[in-house]
Amino acid sequence: MSFLSKFIKKKNDNANTGGMEDYMNLIRVYFQASIAANVGITNLAMLPDLRVFKSTLHVPTVNNKLGVGEKKHCMKMLMDLYGIDDEFFKEIDASIKKNCRKIQDVQPYLIQFQGFSQDLMMLMGNLMKFKLRLPSFMRKVLYTMTEKTVSDIFNKNDYKDAGVIKTVMSIRQYDKRLGFSQKWITDFVYQVVMLAKKEPKANDDEKKK
């Protein structure tokens, strides 16, 4: 999880702090910390991203309960780096509380979220296509387009492409179990879209040099 060492080196820099890979890693850490706190997991080997996060940033265990302090620390980082609000985290916690009631539920839940996020990102890229080329300063337009595409995934039933239909149905089934709102999904995808748009520019600058 190299983003942690990068973050430590760059935490006092304003430029390029917290890219897309950092964001996705921190999201996974938050999920795993929330699961640990909710289920009462004590074995860090079950939660590899959380283990590296905790050991690298030396996050102390709070009240002898794994996940509590780590969750708070990760939440603060996500808020500071990406401006995420409380409601985003509340939905994650609610989803975990609903689906992870015992240790045996943990791995299936994490696999479901991984499948959900992969299918979602692939389909959003397919459906939005040229819209993703809009410049980053058109944030409101990009958010509205992301919101509309997410709404279509859950409400539109006249897709023609068989592959799209299959992925749409898969996402709907995943979300029935996970329980995320369209607002949460829009915010999650929009953050990835905005971060992805910044990364090619950095590569282009390197080529010019």
Textual characterization of the structure:
With 209 residues, the protein is an all-alpha fold. 72% of the residues lie in helices and 0% in strands. It is built from nine helices and no strands. Helix 7 packs across helix 9. The protein is globular. It starts with a helix and ends with a helix. Residues 202-209 have low confidence and may be disordered.
Helices, by number, come to: 9
Task: Extract low-pLDDT stretches.
Answer: 202-209
Tell me which oligomeric state these chains represent. Answer: single chain
Measure the end-to-end span. 28 Å
Number of strands: 0
Strand composition percent? under 5%
Mean pLDDT: 87
Structural class: mainly alpha
**Morphology:** globular
Question: How would a textbook summarize the main sheet?
Answer: none
- What is the radius of gyration computed over CA atoms, rounded to a whole number of angstroms? 18 Å
Helix content: over 70%
* SSE succession: HHHHHHHHH
